[in-house]
Amino acid sequence: MQKIAVATLAGLAVVVAAGSAMAADPYGTWVRPSTGTQVNFYNCGGNLCAKIVAVKDAAKKDTVGKVIMSGAKKTGEGKWQGNLLNTDNGNTYSGYVTLAGAGLKLEGCALGGVLCSGETWQRVK
User: How far apart are CA 30 and CA 52, in angstroms?
Assistant: First the structure.
């Protein structure tokens, strides 16, 4: 009985650790809540890149496949910094990506980081 309990606890620890590791990286597809746009975040040469893979608004279907972030550098645990393309206006902003709980916060800044705006995205299941 004691061996079964130890084996069960060990198995549970492995599952929890695997789940934590999966949740602790930005890779995969995330959805922007305000627009329904889905973006795939992937490793590109040790950096973080992202491209649009699906849109809710048919008028924006030409943005599918567009890379919105290339070569963001890891700056800390769960944090990356690089340039983000805003497909609405075509401008590129200094950007930050931060894992925030179960979400991924993207923040773009202008005027040397004085004016920033962001949104927390959710992982697509």
Answer: 10
